[in-house]
Structures are given as C-alpha cells and as structure tokens.
Amino acid sequence: MFVETFIHAGGVAEGHASEAHALQLIRRAFRRGHTVDATPEGGAVITWTARRLVDGEAVEQGRSISFTPQTPAGPLTDAVRGHLFTLHTGAAAFPGRLDGRPVIRAGLQTIPPAATSHLYAHRLVTEDGGRVRLTLVARLALLSILTAASPEDLAAIAETDGVELPA
C-alpha cells in the first residue's frame, strides 16, 4: 500500500493506493511521456506540465503524483540487495521452512530465516499464487539506488513483472 499525493490546480489531495493502482498510473505516465522517478524508500514521483487556457492566456502549471510506501523499504544493505537480486533473477522462489522458521527457496539457494523475516517485515516480498515475488516497493527501491537508472529501466518495470537489473 502507498500514500498517494496528487498536486493539482486546486491544491493537494491525498489518499491511499494499492500496488496495482500505483503500477497502473506509472504505466500510464510512461505512455504519456511524463517524468517518473523512483525514490529510495520504494516510492515513485510522476511529474508533468499541464497547459491550460486561462483568460485567453496559455498557462503552464506543474502537476505531480507521488507514491510513498506505507512501509518504507529501509536501508538496502549489500546483503538485502543480494537477496532481492537472487529472487528477481533466479528460478521461481517458493516459501519454505527450515527448523520451523520461514525461509525463501529460489532454485538451489535458500535465503536464511532472519533475512526472510526482514524481507517480509519491510514488505519487500509477497506471496502470489504460492510463489514469492518482489513487491513494487522493492523494485522501485532497487532502481533508485542504481547510479545508471535510466528512463528505460523505469519503463521496463512498468511493462513487465520485473526489470532487468544490471549485474
């Protein structure tokens, strides 16, 4: 879940947005050529310029929609990034148990119980159809820390289930 803040001509409106709603608006923003920036906490900011006719004059006004995750991604340490890359690039990931504690199994790799708990607590992963996948928060947080994150990388996250992250 995200807190959605919409800055428009009449002021500011705030509400809540699901992952699906945020992803839909990010996709629409790319199709319309708007600017989309990922934030380190796992959110996104969409900005554009609206052109209106006011009293016979063409007026340009800035607009934006920001999505702030209700549970921020937190600091993405090397270990956390490694686990997220493993889940993104590896084989299908499944929830499992090791000595009664939750783990995530991705191919031949197993993410340890403490790391698994951290990923779930920060809502970086979720279970969908019996598999574990990265949430939009995790994907946006990963993109924001990449020094070479380009508009094409952000567009890829909007058009696919994931984004190809550089090695």
Structural summary, described in words:
There is one protein chain. This protein has 167 residues and is α+β, with helices and mostly antiparallel strands. It folds into two domains: 2-69, no CATH class; 78-146, no CATH class. It has helices at residues 19-31, 78-89, 113-121, 136-145, 151-159; strands at residues 2-8, 11-17, 35-38, 44-54, 57-69, 93-98, 101-106, 109-111, 125-128, 131-134. Strand 4 (44-54) and strand 5 (57-69) form a beta hairpin. The chain starts with a strand and ends in an 8-residue tail after the last helix.
Identify the notable features of this structure and list them briefly:
elongated, 167 residues, alpha+beta, 39% strand, 5 helices, disordered C terminus, 2 domains, three-stranded antiparallel β-sheet, five-stranded antiparallel β-sheet, 10 strands, single chain
Q: What are the SSEs and their pairings?
A:
Blueprint: E1 2-8, E2 11-17, H1 19-31, E3 35-38, E4 44-54, E5 57-69, H2 78-89, E6 93-98, E7 101-106, E8 109-111, H3 113-121, E9 125-128, E10 131-134, H4 136-145, H5 151-159
Antiparallel strand pairs: 1-2, 1-5, 3-4, 4-5, 6-7, 7-8, 9-10
The Rg value, from CA coordinates, equals 18 Å
Q: Total domains, how many?
A: 2
Number of helices: 5
- Order of SSEs, N→C? EEHEEEHEEEHEEHH
Structural class: alpha+beta
Strand order of the largest sheet: 2-1-5-4-3
N-end to C-end Cα span? 29 Å
Largest β sheet strand count, sense and barrel closure: 5 strands, antiparallel
Ranges where pLDDT stays below 50 over 5 or more residues in a row are: 162-167
**Principal-axis shape:** elongated
**What is the residue-averaged pLDDT?**
85
State the total count of DSSP E strands. Answer: 10
Helical content band: 25-40%
Q: Hey, roughly how much beta strand do the residues contain?
A: 35-45%
